Amino acid sequence: MLHLPLFLIFGAICVAGAINLLVQRHPINSALSLIVVMASLAVEYLLLGAEFLAAVQVIVYAGAIMVLFVFVIMLLNAGEEEHTQGSRVALLLGVPGIAIGGVLVAWTVLRHSNTEAVALGALPGPPKDVARLLFHDFLLPFEVTSVLILIAIMGAVVLASKPGAIVRDRRPEPAQEEKRELAAVGKER
Amino acid sequence: MNSLSEVPLAYYLLLSGVLFACGVLGFLIKRNIIAIFMSIELMLNGVNLSFVAFAAHWHALSGQIFVFFVMVVAAAEAAVGLAIIIAVYRTRETLNVDQINLLKL
Question: Do A3 and B68 make contact, defined as CB atoms within 8 angstroms?
Fold first, then answer.
């Protein structure tokens, strides 16, 4: 009884946030609307019975990853993006194409998927079952992800540190005018 | 069937498709490299929603495990990608993808 209204409300918030992400020019506004999308997706996960995933969605996505994004936006002092003139052909062909494609996909999904309701009462998905699956059947992939995270952290540190801060010997920092030259070449193209 | 069981699977799939399409559109029309990266995250979220919806539909928990792994990989990807953005900004001093064209012919 309450499920469908909740789904519609939070689905609408989700889509509105996604469209706002596209419309906003300043990256910090896009980041904030992405947080709205992720939080309302967490509610959708709750409606589907995935309690653990809803918590992880809020903590990892809306928490950790978006903090990284906002941190980088503020670190690089990202301003508004400049608008470029789009091509007319893309507008003329693309908008009807997207409309036709979307209607076709929606029609197919609604027609050919069996629209029997998702039985929520019998849903598996309490954290206990997820944990049993994660630490028993999927134990090896779970352990491998720790190696992946470690490598990602090391890669991020190496990439984001100043050139020459880690490799201290025999690699002098590129001269300042050389950097300017690189940037100038990029701008004139 | 209890009273909470009235949203069809197709609605979840449509919402997931709309989110993914918004991500693709943002990837194509955005000019700021950080906004493009956020569009990729939006696409990942759309796919995650369809994973969870199918997991609920087929009563198979492994779909949720897949979402968990997607989140882990997305976290690693965000860390490395943002580090790459910082490195690019340090050399090119711009975030506009039109000006990051060293690999262009």
Answer: no
